[in-house]
Design a protein that fits this description.
The chain is of the alpha/beta class. It has 18 helices and twelve strands. A hairpin with a 5-residue loop joins strand 9 and strand 10. The chain is globular, with a radius of gyration of 24 Å. This is tRNA-guanine transglycosylase DpdA. It comes from Novosphingobium clariflavum.
């Protein structure tokens, strides 16, 4: 099972100065920064996915600048992502349309011909057909029952585009593997979409619209699809937001999935920001310690405007929190002393009050307990990856993109190892759940 990382220009400055808290003045982010596979020295994934909507153009505002988008088209995906070295030649480069970027439109802004040409010209190894995302979902519907008028229109558009996309890929003798995207409003409608895609000639299907669904609902869809298509049909899950639950999907014969979850959770999850391997093929999670920039954080600036703090006092408390954390890392400060300084600075972020006014609040107490666990276990010292060796305790500090994305890149490395351990377990102890289910369906 391949883990494909959904990239969105997720690079960091290798020369970032943690003490001065700044990059060099002459830094040019794309040219000077490093992708995860560059800063780690190896790829913490089996491939990279780039969405057409992320690249952007005059129709869809992407994340790339105009010059970056031009360079991407000019030199191709592999060179743009700096995957053109021999050690990265084996990595796949998946592409999709980025259906979330045009979800409000009546129809996708791209044609099947445009997307086939885009994938081929830019050197993708796999390209997904042009889909139109369906958010309706009812697990209790059978077959093609139900579905709003809008959902059915998007269902038809997706299948029509898939047929035209595959036809164009064959005509142009494209150098990528076409993937037919499945959209539907129920397990039954997705199974029917999969059946039609296989009938068109697809042998690699991509399951879309999974982001808002819970794991049991995704499994129902996979089960319905697997019961419908040949066993040789490969399946990919697009935008797999339940990536940490991947072990429970053993038995559905998933060939690949893409996600950005391990990186995003480093700075968008309230509790689980730093990964480590755990016992019994599980992951362990730690809460990062928030020490935001005093003069840039909106909540802290509101506290200044309300007269709770003077700006100079906040800057002093910020320096004390950072200094205590670094002293703790050098074994020159105790845990409780360090925790106290961090909490004094964090209190306005939690309650928008000075520490003395909310020291006994349940919210601050819960945060204190999570921080205490992080400090007590020192997880950054338990990891030998280049990120943790170089950044030390700064990797666990929630503060700015260069720290937060470094923590996310560390998470990618831990997650890739997690997937490899799960695959090894599956090889040794293959699941017989799916064969039993398929036999029952045949009977």
């Amino acid at each position: 099972m391949k883990f494909i990382f959904a990239d969105s220009l997720d690079y960091v400055d290798p020369a970032f100065d943690f003490i001065a808290d700044r990059s060099r003045a002459e830094r040019q982010p794309y040219w000077d920064d490093a992708y995860p596979h560059e800063i780690l020295g190896y790829a913490p994934y089996d491939g990279v996915l780039v969405s057409r909507g992320i690249v952007g153009d005059h129709r869809v505002k992407g994340k790339y600048t105009a010059s970056q988008a031009r360079r991407f088209r000019l030199v191709g995906a592999r060179k743009f992502l700096r995957l053109d070295k021999p050690e990265f030649a084996h990595l796949d480069i998946f592409g999709d349309c980025g259906a979330f970027t045009y979800v409000q439109d009546e129809k996708p802004p791209y044609t099947p011909v445009e997307m086939a040409e885009f994938y081929d010209e830019c050197g993708f190894t796999h390209g997904a057909s042009v889909d139109h995302i369906i958010f309706d979902f009812d697990a209790g519907l059978a077959g093609l029952a139900g579905g709003s008028t809008d959902a059915r229109q998007r269902f038809d558009i997706t299948l029509e585009n898939a047929e035209g996309f595959l036809r164009e890929a064959k005509v142009m003798d494209a150098g990528f593997t076409p993937m037919g995207v499945i959209q539907g409003w129920s397990p039954g409608s997705m199974a029917e979409a999969a059946r039609r895609l296989v009938a068109m000639g697809y042998d690699y299907l991509a399951l879309g619209g999974m982001v808002p669904l819970k794991s049991p609902e995704i499994k129902l869809c996979l089960e319905a699809i697997r019961d419908t298509v040949p066993a040789s049909t490969r399946l990919h899950i697009l935008g797999f937001a339940k990536a940490d639950d991947i072990d429970s999907f053993h038995g559905y014969d998933i060939s690949s999935f893409d996600t950005t979850s391990p990186l995003i959770r480093a700075f968008k999850d309230a509790k689980q920001n730093y990964y480590l391997p755990g016992d019994r093929l599980a992951l362990r999670y730690f809460t990062s310690i928030r020490v935001p920039q005093a003069i840039e954080n909106p909540k802290l600036q509101r506290a200044v405007k309300k007269g709770m703090f003077r700006a100079e006092e906040l800057v002093r408390l910020e320096a004390l929190a950072l200094g205590s954390l670094r002293a703790f890392d050098r074994d020159e400060a105790g845990l409780e002393e360090t925790l106290h300084h961090v909490l004094v600075y964090s209190a306005p972020l939690v309650e928008e009050k000075p520490y003395e006014d909310c020291a006994a609040s349940p919210s601050l107490a819960r945060l204190a307990e999570r921080y205490r666990t992080t400090l007590a276990e020192r997880p950054w010292k338990q990891c030998s990856c280049k990120i943790c060796r170089d950044a030390a305790i700064d990797v666990i500090i929630f503060r700015g993109s260069n720290r937060n994305k470094r923590r996310g890149i560390h998470n990618l490395a831990v997650y890739q190892d997690h997937i490899e351990r799960l695959d090894l377990k599956r090889a040794v102890e293959p699941s017989d759940d799916l064969p039993r289910r398929l036999c029952a369906a045949e009977q």
